[in-house]
Amino acid sequence: MRAWVLLSAVLWYLTGAGGRRSSERTSKGFIYGKPGHPVKLYVKLHHHSPVLVCMDFRRAKKETVDPTYIWIGPNEKPLTGNNQINITKTGKLMVKDFLEALSGLYTCTLSYKTVRAETQEETIVKQRYDFMIFAYREPDYSYQMAVRFTTKSCEGRYNDLLFRVLKKILDNLISDLSCHVIEPSYKCHFVKIPKHGLIHELFIAFQVNPFAPGWKGACNDSADCEDITNHNILQARDRIEEFFRSQAYIYYHDFNKTIPAMHFVDHSFQVVRMDSCRPGFGKNEGLHSNCASCCVACSPGTFSPDVDVTCQNCVSVRIYGAKSCT
């Protein structure tokens, strides 16, 4: 049975009929250095970095004689090619399967020669390029929602029964998405309606969360599980929104204004997205303005032990992505 039909039946049974969401990138996806200016960029967790070029865009358009390239990683040691680090003969760097511990300063020194045509005199020129790379992941979405229902009185068991039935219907509506309703609550208020008297209304609030029991089974061993859970929570939001839209339609159209005393208040549905970050990650709009909505690996000197949205200070932390202050 359609969920909105089920709730309609419950309301009629209860009351009967009544009144009324960085750097310069070329067309090939290369990231060039900028002399004297660190290039800041963000790499999604478990993805490959863009290709970093040990050269600025202006130099790349010129002839370069006997170029050599030395890359230094965040640990201040020279980088060499391996299964995770790819360095080409022309000084291009790509980091595969980027992790939070790989965040930090990557420095490349370009050395090349200038040759005077008339004397063949050679001069060695060196230029340094800095790239600040941060691992990030998408925030986990949840939604805070609020609705209102009219009621005959603020007393009696019918209000609590409606509240419990509504929660059960919404849980069933989104259970196949591994989402569920948490922290539900309601209060009854007297409301003065313009050109009408006082009426009783239930102000209902709840949160829709993508981590119902067994939610990891929906990830299918995916490294970017937040992509899947966020996709599911968006579907859950749309289903719930459609559910309450149907409530408004059935009461204000199908019954020709003859509606139960307990009914959904049209246009009362409100929804606000709430973001959280996994441990070791946080948001910092001031530091990461080019990725303000991202959960970025906590920098040295900070940590995040839970699903908060900010990293906390801890002077003893020396790594990126710290989950504890040790």
Describe the structure.
By secondary structure, the chain is α+β, with helices and mostly antiparallel strands. It contains 4 helices and 16 strands. The chain has helices spanning 3-15, 57-60, 158-174, 225-254, and strands spanning 30-33, 39-44, 51-56, 65-72, 85-87, 92-95, 104-115, 122-137, 140-151, 180-192, 198-209, 270-276, 281-282, 295-297, 302-303, 312-313. Strands 2, 4, 7, 8, 13 and 14 form a 6-stranded mixed sheet that branches. It has a 4-stranded mixed sheet with strand order 1-3-6-5. A 4-stranded antiparallel sheet has the order 10-11-9-12, covered by helices on one side. Mean pLDDT is 87; it is low at 16-21.
Give the overall form: elongated
The overall strand count is: 16
How many separate helices?
4
**Biggest sheet details:** 6 strands, mixed
Structural class: alpha+beta
Q: Helical residue percent?
A: 10-25%
- Overall radius of gyration: 29 Å
| Mean pLDDT across residues | 87
**Spatial separation of the terminal alpha carbons:** 55 Å
Instruction: Spell the H/E element sequence.
Output: HEEEHEEEEEEHEEHEEEEE
- Share in β-strands: 25-35%
Q: Which parts are unreliable, with pLDDT below 50 for 5 consecutive residues or more?
A: 16-21
Main location: cytoplasm
Subcellular location: Cytoplasmic vesicle, Secretory vesicle, Acrosome; Secreted
Signal peptide: 1-19
Domain Zona-pellucida-binding protein 1/2 C-terminal: 277-325
